[in-house]
Amino acid sequence: xxxxxxxxxxxxxxxGKIKEETHGEAFYRKWLGGYGLGSRILYNDIPANTDPxxxxxxxxxTTGILTGTLAPFSGSFTAVGKSPLTGTWGxxxxxxxxxxxxxxxxxxxxxxHGRSQKPVxxxxxxxxxxxxxxxxxxxxxxxxxxxxxxEKHQDKRVQVACIGSSGEKLxxxxxxxxxxxxxxxxxxxxxxxxxxxVKAIAVRGRGRIPVEDMDQVLDFRKKVLDAMxxxxxxxxxxxxxxxxxxxxxxISGDSPVKNWSGVGSEDFPTAxxxxxxSVIKYDIGPYGCFGCPVACGGLQRVESGPYTVEGHKPExxxxxxxxxxxxxxxxxxxxxxxxxxxxxxxxxxxxxxTIAFAIECYEKGIISKDETDGIALKWGNHKAIVEMTEKLAxxxxxxxxxxxxxxxAAEKIGKSSKKYAIHVCGQELPMHDPRxxxxxxxxxxxxxxxxxxxxxxxxxxxxxGFALQATGICSFGGFLGRGGEGVPQLTDFINAITGWSIxxxxxxxxxxxxxxxRQAFNIRDGLKPSDFTYPDRVLGKPPLTSGPSAGVTIxxxxxxxxxxxxxxxxxxxxxGKPRKKKLIELGLEDVASxxxx
Length: 597
Known about the structure:
597 residues; alpha+beta; Aldehyde Ferredoxin Oxidoreductase,  A, domain 1; Aldehyde Ferredoxin Oxidoreductase Protein, subunit A, domain 2; Aldehyde Ferredoxin Oxidoreductase Protein, subunit A, domain 3; 14% strand; globular
């Protein structure tokens, strides 16, 4: 049983019943954990064509096979459910310390079914679970909720995953938060918790995760860390985290500028004001998730002025979403916005993208000052950006129009606003521009934004990488841990911890199985590849006339990539259905029967 506990919790909020479900080695060998485990469980438990905000939907928090172990970067958990934002399969990785604590408390995952009539939270301690009243924290934001629950249980080591008031008010871009600043942000899965009246999961465990060969794990860890420190990116990530490349990304064409319509060197030449040294001068201490040898996060303080605040350092995505996208070079306002979104429980990518959309609508006369509650939404107006984001977080005034993201906002605003709503299936695109064809990572993003089961996701790698989120390892673990001959790989850690003999080929098969299951979840609901489409602006229709991506149109490239990808996955290009033979080969006979009869 190395690496996994073998037990998951299923909470029926309607009846108040709690059930333990056990799974053996064969199950974990096929799915590992994380969104692999989640996709298998929820394909069974969520009926086809379920409304994401109705009781029939299920939301789960899952851990990976390496979560909470001594493997480096092993602090991840993954939230799963049918996305209220996109209507597709939904998953979102979070960091911090919640995932490991859930395993120490005796469970690999917890799933919520049904709906409570009153606000509740789930208390888990050392193998025991209890549904408790949450009326004293309902309406409170993230930081207060964590503090109150830790005080209630008189233990500072209690770990909390919770929603803020944005999730309570069913914002479709709301996030599940841990550690006051770590977010499972994408897909709007916090809105499912809000719809079920689940405010939080609080966990405390003193158990241990079984490990087959601890001496070997320790040896592997030392070798990886030694190799990692020789990587030239290591010191940079320790110093800056993800903020170090913000300015360069804005100028190179990696970051979208001015709601995807601008060019960094021309429209945002002051990008250095929101990246690197301009950000870290507010640091008051490092922050690292469980098992992290880099501590790429940080705690920050703005000591005076209108944006006085103390909280987590904004990541690159946040700096670009509220910075380059909005032409805002006031770094203190972005630090404040990051804290605001964390405390209310909002995805900063979607929130920033939605504000940029609103600014463009205002600048083009589609909406007026009367409609925006007197706020002059103009490019670079950091005061207006903060004021409108606060309204979005609270669902107040015009913020209520924006609280469900750009797709819903454009439907409500009407007129010509739709052409400025940049999304795929309702989810705002990440801060990496697929028109940046000189960047090999963005060539992959160009494919995955429209080919993955969760649209508009920059963390979804091509075929070989699908198992990473199932392991419980942070994406940067794979990036920084690369080394030469003799440096242990992910499979080495899995085998030392579990006692298995998994190969790289086996990992590809597991990734194939997980990707296919996530795809099948969508296909069962009637979704087709043609539903996953880019706005013309992102395709370069018309192309930018200057800058690194001048003249670039990617429509043919994307179509070819999608065609090749579906062929390699053995999924039908027109319907998206995995071939029946493929499903059977992957051991998904029930799915084959559902999709093919």
